[in-house]
Description:
Structural class: mainly beta
Number of strands: 11
Oligomer: single chain
Helix content: under 10%
Distance between the termini: 40 Å
Amino acid sequence: QLRLVESGGRLVQPGESLILSCEASGFDLSVYAVAWFRQVPEKGREGVACFTNNGVTFYGDSAEDRFTITRDDLKNMVSLQMNGLKVEDSGVYYCAATLRTSLMSYTRTVCLKESRYDDWGQGTQVTVSS
């Protein structure tokens, strides 16, 4: 059974760093595209970062230069290193995966498109507040 489990979310102060992890079971994550999405109340899910099956990474505007997505094939997991956190980074962070990887390595828009992802974790809450 395919499963994604996020962890690492917590309350942090502005400017601090945080690492989110997404552990996969039941499938080989390396052949999937994987992404992190953030959801805040009254808004849809925003693409934060993605890691394609070919090892290409893209970032949303808010994450550029501050966040780094990595994949560990031995541990079958993906991580999101978040530095310089801001209050507006708060939200529930979801890990998602898909085998529908066509064009994902070429365009950020496709790689961060919510509807391209078929399998989702339950989410982990990140709160940035002083």
